[in-house]
Amino acid sequence: MNVGANFLREHVTDDVRIHYVFTDGGSVPNVVPDKAAVWYYIRALSREAVVDTYERLIKIAKGAALMTETEVAVELLGGCYNTSQNKVLVDTVYETMKEVPVPTWSEEDKAFAAALNKSSANYDKMLASHSILKTFN
């Protein structure tokens, strides 16, 4: 399957990236394992290119299973689409945020917040990262 996936690289657009890692390939050399697993990760500039490459990769997996008289199981772990910035919405939210007054905190509010921070399980980590930030500011 991996040979086929690497040959696929020659037949996709230049923006497509096919990454992989063998997650199970047996336990000893020179013995064909009873089970093998590989995780592929596909990236491209468009969702259409990712879907096309994914579908072709599935065909390669099925072809490899036919060649070796084995079975293939595919698990899709996830995917995402390109993001589109909505400038009108961003500008509207920004203008609205400028109209909302900045909250003022009393000394009592600040003391309460400090007490909550100290009760956090991650308080020491927060202090360490805060110290690092102060160093760079």
Strand content: 5-15%
Please give the alpha-carbon distance between the first and last residues: 51 Å
| Count of spatially separate domains | 2
User: Which consecutive residue ranges, at least 5 long each, have pLDDT under 50?
Assistant: none
Largest sheet, described in full?
A: 2 strands, antiparallel
Largest sheet strand order: 1-2
Provide the CATH architecture of the largest domain.
Answer: 2-Layer Sandwich
> CATH topology of the largest domain, which one?
Alpha-Beta Plaits
Shape: elongated
Number of strands: 2
Given the structure, what is the number of helices? 5
- The CATH class of the largest domain, by name, is Alpha Beta
Determine the fraction of residues in helical runs and give it as a percent range: 40-55%
- For the residues shown, what is the average pLDDT? 89
Q: Which class of secondary structure composition applies to the elements?
A: mainly alpha
Rg, please?
Answer: 26 Å
SSE pattern? HEEHHHH
Overall description:
The protein is mainly alpha-helical and 137 residues long. It folds into 2 domains: 2-68, Alpha-Beta Plaits (2-Layer Sandwich), CATH 3.30.70; 87-136, no CATH class. The protein has helices spanning 2-8, 47-68, 87-99, 107-118, 123-136; strands at 17-24, 37-43. A two-stranded antiparallel sheet has the order 1-2. The model has no long low-confidence stretch (mean pLDDT 89).
